[in-house]
Fold:
Amino acid sequence: MSSPAAEAPTSHAITVEHLSKSFGDHEVLKDISLQIDPGEVVCVIGPSGSGKSTLLRCVNMLETPTSGRVVVGHHEMTDPDVDLDAARRRIGMVFQSFNLFPHLTVLRNLTIAQTKVLGRSRSDAEATARKNLARVGMADRENAFPAQLSGGQQQRIAIARSLSMDPELMLFDEPTSALDPELVGEVLAVMKGLAAEGMTMMIVTHEMAFAREAADRVVFMDGGYIVEEGPPSRVIGDPQNPRTKSFLHRVLNPMVIEPEEILPDGMHDAIRDLAP
Ligand code: ADP
Ligand code: MG
Structure:
């Protein structure tokens, strides 16, 4: 073969190899290895504090891994010589908080990074913004200010803003956790649409029904480890590891309290009264 072995281009969208991350002497990620293919939708689930956000933030180097390797597309993120700004331009990130500029219209919120970071002309940026507003069902609100929109609409704008940078992949960290329950569905619908279009997505979420429906793969994390991963029908529908089972049991049956759980006086009775 004539192709030089040294280039060995990875066909994965994201490769994480033996990643560890400590804050002081607290090791929050322990030897994590994970590959995500182009077009794949991976949902990361797990209890609070298990390291989900830290893993996501290591993918675009918002956190610097203590050891291990992260590759995104052709960018060696953990190479000290990598052009991180260039690499991050290819990675969209959506957080629980939308972080829209309150003093700018929806349209300006979507064009500002396109003109300042990508150097697009204002008219090109506006055309791209309008295309992406349509994609999230917000085409008619380009002149609104964020405060005039519901949380669900603001999160859809934040997704459109991210899409306007033409990302190769999108990272979502609990994008619906700050929303009132009746506004969650519209954001999940937009994300399902992106999945159907073939966007590569890594999504930290507690929305198990969404993960079951939209994910190609579910990764369950606990205590800084990937404990179990596989198709949602298996990890959520038929978990094998006792920790996965116990987490899902708690998430899917929030009113069921196990007898051994330590609760303040009276809480067991109160919850028993509430349970169906
Ligand atoms: P998750 O997203 O699964 O809830 P995180 O990745 O946010 O978990 O956090 C994992 C652990 O790392 C937690 O114990 C958290 O307190 C700790 N942690 C996260 N970020 C920092 C930080 N910047 N400094 C110190 N500890 C942190
Ligand atoms: Mg988190």
The longest helix spans residues 181-197. The chain has a mean pLDDT of 92. The pocket of magnesium ion (ligand 2) is lined by residues 52-53 (CB under 6 Å). The longest strand covers residues 26-36.
